[in-house]
Amino acid sequence: MSHALHRDVAIIGGGLVGSSAALALRRMGFSVVLLDKGFCGAQASGVNYGGVRRQGRAPEQIALSQRAHAIWPRLKDLIGVDGEFVRSGHLKLARTEAEMASLEAYATRVADLGLDLELIGGNQLRERFPWIAGDVMGASLCAGDGHANPRLVSAAFAHAARRAGVDVLEHTRVSHVERATDGFYLWAGSNTEIKASFVINSAGAWAGPFAEAFGEPVPLHAIYPSMIVTEPLDVFMSVNIGAEGGGIYARQVERGNCIVGGMRGEPLAEPDFSRPTGSGAVTIMNRAAALFPALRHAYAIRSWSGTEGEMADRNPVIGFSRTTPNLIHAFGFSGAGFQIAPGVGEVLAELVRDGESRTPIQAFAIDRFARTIQGSRADNGLEPKKRETAR
Amino acid sequence: MRPLIVGAGPAGILAAQTLVNSGIRPVVIDEAPSGGGQIYRQRLVPDERSAKDLYGSEANKATALHRTFAGIRDRIDYHPETLVWNLRDKVADAVTGHRTRRIPFSHLILATGATDRVLPFPGWTLPGVFTLGGSQIALKSQGCAIGEEVVFLGSGPLLYLVAWQYVKAGAKVAAVLDTSPLSAKLHLLRGLFAQPSVVLRGFRYVTELMARGVAVRFGVQPILIDGTARVEGVVWRERGEEHRLTCDAVGYGFSLRSETQLADLAGCRFVFDTRDRAWRPERDGAGRTSMPGVYIAGDGAGIAGADAAELAGERAGLALIEDAGLLVDRARIGVLERKLARIQKFRDVLESAFPFPETWANSIADDVTLCRCEEIAIGDVRAAVRDQGVFELNRLKALTRVGMGRCQGRMCGSAAMEVLAAACGQSPDAAGRLRAQPPIKPIPMGVMAQEETA
C-alpha cells in the first residue's frame, strides 16, 4: 500500500540540523515531514565528540554560533532533556610559541564578537589546571563554552519534533526528489510519496547527490572522526580541552568517563558505518596519557567513529539553492556542526517563513563553489525543466 | 602463509595441531597464562592437586589436550596473556601487558569460547555472587571456593558440573537450584541413545551430589539473593511455596553465550540461532565464515561443548589447509563431520532438558539492575520502549547506556536483548545485536606500540 503525504516542508536527514529545523518549523505552524534513512541522530549528530564550542570557529560562523549559544541552556524547556549540557568552558592549548601566537591572533580577530576569550600564560595555566602535563606554552579559555552528550541531544530533538506533530519517518531513505510547477515530489522508503512546498537538504555526508540533482555539485567528502572512552575515573578535567593545531581534544563527563578524540577512523564495507583504526586508537590514547597524568594508568573501554560531511573550505553550506526556488541546503558542517546546529535549525525555519534569516549566512552560500567547479550540472542543463530563477 | 589462531582452548589447540601436522606454523594468541581454555584451565601456580582433582571425569581429556599443546609448542608462535583487541584488513592488534603490536595474518581461526549467560534478578550484584564460569575459575586456577557455603543456581549442564567439582574439591555446597523443571529432564532419555556417556555422567553428578546431602531442586523461580553488604542467603519459589536457604556465596548462570566480538570486527555475517537464543557468526559445517580466510570453531561459533570444540577446531584447521590448496584427509573430514552432527543433535536434547526461562523477561522487576557497568535498571529499558519507541539494541545502547561500560555488553547484552524484545512484544532476534567496537576488552591508555613482529 502506498503512503502519500502532503506537507509544507519535507526535510531530508534527521540529524541535529534537520530535527531542530523540523521542531522550529512545526512551532511556527508549518506541517513538516522529517525523513531519515536510519535512526534520527544516528550519524554525525549523534556520534560526534560532544564539544559545544564557539572558540576556534571562523569569524563568519560566530554570529550563528552565538545564536546557538543562547539555545543550549534552554534545552530542557525546548526538547525535554538537558542533554547533559555543561557550561564547563573550553580551553584551547598551545604547545609551541607559534601556536600561542596563533591563539593570540585569533583572540584579536574575534575580540568584538562576544566570545570573551581569556589568554592564559604557561605558569598560570599550570597553576589553574595542574592536571595538564607536558610542555604547554599557554592556552585560550572560552568560559562560556562547554560540552554535551550528542547521543541524547540529537535523538531528543527528533523526539520533540515528533511530539510537536512532525511526521518523523525513520528508516525511510529518500530515493528521488524532483521539482514540478506545483512543488516538490519526493519518493522515499519502499512506498512513501511526499508532496511539499519546501525541501530542506540536511542530509549531512549524504547531502551531495541531492544538491547535485538540482544542478549544484559541491566539494563534499566523508570523514570519520573517532573517539576513545576511558573507564569512569574521579572527575579531574574541569574544562573541555582542545588544541591549537589539532591532534587531540578531550572532555570528562559527570559519570567520570573521559572522551578523547583527535584521529580519524575508516569506513567499513557498509560505508554508512565506520570504525577507529587500531593504530589511530593507540595514538589518541598515548597523546591523552601524555597530556593528562590522571589517564596514564586508566583503561580505554570503548571507541566509536561516525560519518561526517566535510567541505573543501570547512565551512558549511547553509541557505537557498541558486537553481531551485524553495529548496534549502544545510550540510557540510565539517566536524564542527554540533554546537551551531540548533541555531541553524532556527535559521532554516526563518528562511521558510520569511525568505531570509536575521542571522547572516551569506558566507555559506552554495554558489561560492560555482566558480571553482568545472562543468557544473547547473550549466550543462541536466534538469532543464526544473530550472527557475533563483531567489 | 601465516595463520592466526585466537584462543588456546580445545578448539584453538586442535586447530593449531592440525595446521602444524601439515607443516604450517600458526600464531596462537590466548588471554590465559597457559593453554586449555576455560574448560581445561590450568592452575596459576603448582599445588598438590592432581588432574583428577581438578578436572574430575574429564581429567584424561584435559591431560591429553595439555600434552598436545606442549607437543606443538616449538612449532607455533605462541603469545599467552595476550588479548587481540582489534582486527581489521588481515591485521590483528594484540596487547600483552602494556605493549601492543600489529600482527598481520593470512588466515584467521577464531576459537574465542563462551561466557555465562547472565540473567539478572534481585541481589545479583551483591558481593559473593559469581557466574558459574567464575566459580570454576576460582576453583581450577586459584584453588579456592567462592564461599564457605555455596548455592549454585540457574540452568544448563554447567550448573551440575560446577557443583560436583566443588563437592569433589571438598567445598560445602548448600544446594543446587535448577530453574528448569524436573519433567524437562525426561528429554535426556532421548539423549541416552545419542550420547550415552554424557548423559550418564550428568546423572552421576546428580546422584553423587544427592548422596552427599546436597539439596537438588527443580523448577525453581529465584526471588532474590538476600544480604546487605554481601550474600547471606537465597530465597526462591518452588511449587508455589517460598523457601530460603542461608549461604555466603552464589554461583549462577543460564547456559552459555558465545564470545563473538572478534568475528564481528572481522566482518563476518551473523545469523540468529534460535536454539541458543543468540546471534552467532554464520558458518558452514567446516567452520568457514562469510569472510574468505576467516574460520570459527568451538563455543565461540555456537554453544556445543568441549568435545565438539576439539572436533570443530580440527575441522576448521582442515578447511583452512584445503582452502590453501594443500592435501587433506577426506576420510578424517567425514569422521569429524559425522561426530559433530551427532553432538549437534544432542544439543537439541540438552536445550530441552535445560530450557531458557521464558517468563523471565516479562516477570523481572523494574528496579533490578540490568547493566552493572553503567548502573542501568530493567525499567530503564522498558521506559525507553514506552517513551521513545526504541526497538533496536544499538539504539537502546545510545539512549540508555546499556552495554556501554567496561564489559561492552558481553555480560548484559543477552538480558538486554530479552527485556527489549519482550517489552516490544517481539521475538529476541527482532532486537538486533550490539555492534562490536575495538577494544573488545579494556586496554591501558598508556599502552606502547611495538613494531610488527614476524
Automatic annotation (TrEMBL), chain A:
Organism, per UniProt? Microvirga aerilata
- Alphabetical UniProt keywords: Oxidoreductase
Q: Has UniProt tagged this entry with the keyword Oxidoreductase?
A: yes
The name on file for this protein is FAD-binding oxidoreductase
Give the FAD dependent oxidoreductase domain ranges: 8-351
The organism that produces this protein has a lineage beginning with: Bacteria, Pseudomonadati, Pseudomonadota, Alphaproteobacteria, Hyphomicrobiales
Q: Name one GO cellular component term.
A: cytoplasm
Enumerate the InterPro entries for this protein: FAD-dep_OxRdtase, FAD/NAD-bd_sf
Instruction: Name the domain of life.
Output: Bacteria
